[in-house]
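Structure (tokenized):
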């Protein structure tokens, strides 16, 4: 994973940079296919804006938050990204589990339809006479 930390109109504290790196490592628990991560911290008068962009295989997640201090802005942006990554992980797991459930259903033979009718495999339904 390539990580880029950028500061615009300010300097990033080493502690804030360490916080960003730790939070990125924490995100790798939820998604393993992080290709690139960009953390941009911008200062405008009394406001600090943090923007975190994660590039995954097939997805791009962006979290943007602003606060009075750079640490609060970074923390809020990473919270937003963490929520997105958890949601993505849940969607991926549901998709996989859904395929397994469908595969199990397909393996079961359609021996009985409603009313005791049998399916002969050719599209015709035979009734019990």
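Design, position by position:
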């Amino acid at each position: 994973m390539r990580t880029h930390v950028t500061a615009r109109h300010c300097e990033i504290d080493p502690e804030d940079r360490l916080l960003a790196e730790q939070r990125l490592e924490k995100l790798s628990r939820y998604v393993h296919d992080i290709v690139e991560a960009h953390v941009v911290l911008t200062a405008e008068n009394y406001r600090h804006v943090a923007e975190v962009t994660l590039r995954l295989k097939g997805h791009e997640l962006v979290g943007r938050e602003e606060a009075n201090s750079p640490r609060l802005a970074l923390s809020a942006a990473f919270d937003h990204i963490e929520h997105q990554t958890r949601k993505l992980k849940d969607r991926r797991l549901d998709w996989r589990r859904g395929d397994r459930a469908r595969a199990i259903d397909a393996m079961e033979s359609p021996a009985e339809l409603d009313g005791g009718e049998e399916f002969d495999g050719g599209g015709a339904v035979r009734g019990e006479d």
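Reviewer-requested clarification: The helical segments are 14-27, 70-107. The mean pLDDT is 83.
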